[in-house]
């Protein structure tokens, strides 16, 4: 086997002596690696290739097949999503086109289970091909959400990368440069775009070309630049440029010529306020029923009622007061506000509504779980991948706080039989708690393993710990009550984690003591 492997690597122009060690290293990657000879026949693939395409035969049996044969096996195995799976010949042609000299663009393929795999291919110096296969599902979903948010923005929005090349914008931004669609200007450099804008006579006359371009570049390159620009058609825009964390630039143009944006924002927030009030009234019965259930379940009925009322007063009344107060201001004094003030008040109303909706959703989920009416859609899920997703979502926030998150003990491929939404809620809630209550300089550790045919997922921190573990698992309880324990929020997070876990026939446990951190462990059935 080693001789065959060495010969394969040698045919691709790789060091024969290093072949065994290199192959072992490639099998450890969470990226599929395939090696084809000059005739497009497979001569090597690492173990992750079979993980990406579970219907394919074992990788050893694939050696010698052409790239086209592998693609057709993917289709026959039900791996490829429509419409590619219906027009196989066209799909094969598109895939093989990537194995062409000078073709360096990555190719995305969509799988039938919803995953997105990115393929990057490069030719070796001896005419062979190396292809890398990466699961980019979460990245593509995040990109799509961002693009949708940008497209819906009332302002003209653009993002430039660290080379000052336009990477993303909406149609409103493209129209500022005389283009109908964002795709017409993606990939252009900022300096070239503003020169074109001036030369196209889109701007109002009054400043010479060199001076205007220099002033615009200065505002663009400032960490927080602001510049007012008037167009030849009489419109005026407030341009704001901000430096991003990766060295790029965010540019937002706000039309300040009339009150349209202010009126639109006011109407939208008024509707949102009406919907929030209606939702709050519709959930009154749920809250009353939930209170009765808590009264029966907890021995200290009076204490439970007091806790519930305190939580409702703070978590429901506070955002509702903010929503009503700021909306009343906008309704009665809206004609006196500037667009910036309207935007600020609208943002506060939006935040209050989101906080209120979050609490209502938590209460609804807990009510459904308690009544046995929460419908789980259980599928095979890679629990390790979901933990890595939680790691990615909270890494920047933890770093800004001075907290380190370690996910080195989370392998991929730990498949569980679970509802993806519920499991995501469990893991994100546990990581959120750990980051929230770990002080600067502390660390959070994520771990995943198998034990006795079950998958064990744990999140540990070295924060202040808790004194009464049983208390923090009760609804509307916040642990220490004036101590330095894990406190804050409505007190429903860990209750939901426990309820979701038990709904999956799993177990949830907490180990903690004051000053000794906290470890939360979820044990779920492994997928068969």
Task: Name the descriptors.
single chain, 528 residues, Beta-Lactamase, 5-stranded antiparallel beta sheet
Description:
- This protein is of the alpha+beta class.
- The protein folds into four domains: 2-135, PAS domain (Beta-Lactamase, 2-Layer Sandwich), CATH 3.30.450.20; 140-255, Beta-Lactamase (2-Layer Sandwich), CATH 3.30.450.20; 260-371, no CATH class; 378-525, Histidine kinase-like ATPase, C-terminal domain (Heat Shock Protein 90, 2-Layer Sandwich), CATH 3.30.565.10.
- It is 47% helix and 20% strand.
- It is built from 18 helices and 17 strands.
- It has helices spanning 2-11, 19-27, 47-52, 59-62, 67-76, 88-96, 137-152, 171-176, 190-199, 209-221, 260-282, 284-297, 301-333, 339-371, 383-401, 420-436, 469-472, 493-503, and strands spanning 32-36, 42-45, 107-110, 116-123, 129-135, 156-160, 166-169, 224-230, 236-243, 249-255, 378-382, 404-409, 415-419, 443-451, 454-461, 507-512, 518-525.
- The strands form four sheets. A five-stranded antiparallel β-sheet has the order 2-1-5-4-3.
- A hairpin with a 5-residue loop joins strand 6 and strand 7 (166-169).
- Helix 5 (67-76) runs antiparallel to helix 6, helix 12 (284-297) packs antiparallel against helix 13 (301-333) and helix 15 (383-401) packs parallel to helix 16.
- The longest helix is centred in the middle third of the chain and has 33 residues, at 301-333.
- It starts with a helix and ends with a strand.
- The model is unreliable at 479-488 (pLDDT under 50).
């Amino acid at each position: 086997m080693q001789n065959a492997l060495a010969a394969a690597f040698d045919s691709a122009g790789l060091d024969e002596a290093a072949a065994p060690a290199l192959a072992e290293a490639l099998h450890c990657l969470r990226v599929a690696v395939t090696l084809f000879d000059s005739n497009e026949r497979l001569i090597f693939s690492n173990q992750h290739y079979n993980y990406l395409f579970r219907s394919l035969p074992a990788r050893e049996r694939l050696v010698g097949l052409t790239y086209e044969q592998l693609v057709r096996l993917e289709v026959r195995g039900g791996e490829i999503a429509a419409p590619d799976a219906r027009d196989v010949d066209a799909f094969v042609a598109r895939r093989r086109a990537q194995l062409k000299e000078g073709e360096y663009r990555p190719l995305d393929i969509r799988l039938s289970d919803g995953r997105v795999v990115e393929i990057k291919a490069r030719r070796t110096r001896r005419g062979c091909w190396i292809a890398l296969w990466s699961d980019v599902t979460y990245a593509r979903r995040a990109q799509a959400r961002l693009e949708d948010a940008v497209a819906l923005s009332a302002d003209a929005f653009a993002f430039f990368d660290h080379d000052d090349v336009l990477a993303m914008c909406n149609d409103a931004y493209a129209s500022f440069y005389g283009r109908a669609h964002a795709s017409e200007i993606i990939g252009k450099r900022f300096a070239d775009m503003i020169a074109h804008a001036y030369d196209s006579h889109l701007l109002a006359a009054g400043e010479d070309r060199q001076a205007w371009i220099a002033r615009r570049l200065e505002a663009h390159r400032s960490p927080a630049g602001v510049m007012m620009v008037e167009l030849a058609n009489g419109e005026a825009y407030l341009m704001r440029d901000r430096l991003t964390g990766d060295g790029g630039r965010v540019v937002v143009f706000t039309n300040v010529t009339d009150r349209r944006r202010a009126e639109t924002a006011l109407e939208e927030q008024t509707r949102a306020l009406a919907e929030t009030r209606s939702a709050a009234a519709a959930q009154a019965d749920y809250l009353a029923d939930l209170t009765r259930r808590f009264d029966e379940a907890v021995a200290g009925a009076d204490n439970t009622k007091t806790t519930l009322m305190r939580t409702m007063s703070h978590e429901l009344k506070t955002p509702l007061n903010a929503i009503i107060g700021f909306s009343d201001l906008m309704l009665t004094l809206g004609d006196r506000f500037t667009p910036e003030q309207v935007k600020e008040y609208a943002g506060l109303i939006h935040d209050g509504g989101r906080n209120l909706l979050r609490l209502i959703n938590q209460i609804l989920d807990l009510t459904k779980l308690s009544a046995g009416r929460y419908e789980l859609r259980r599928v095979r899920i890679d629990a390790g991948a979901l933990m890595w997703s939680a790691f990615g979502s909270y890494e920047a926030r933890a770093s800004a706080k001075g907290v380190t998150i370690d996910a080195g003990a989370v392998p991929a491929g730990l498949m569980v039989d679970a509802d993806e939404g519920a499991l995501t809620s469990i893991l994100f809630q546990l990581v959120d708690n750990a980051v929230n209550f770990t002080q600067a300089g502390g660390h959070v550790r994520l771990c995943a393993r198998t034990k006795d045919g079950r998958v064990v997922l744990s999140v540990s921190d070295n924060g202040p710990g808790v004194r009464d573990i049983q208390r923090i698992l009760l609804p509307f309880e916040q642990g220490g009550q004036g101590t330095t324990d894990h406190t804050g929020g409505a007190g429903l997070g860990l209750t939901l984690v426990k309820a979701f876990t038990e709904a999956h026939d799993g177990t949830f446990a907490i180990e903690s003591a004051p000053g000794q951190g906290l470890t939360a462990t979820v044990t779920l059935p492994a997928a068969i």
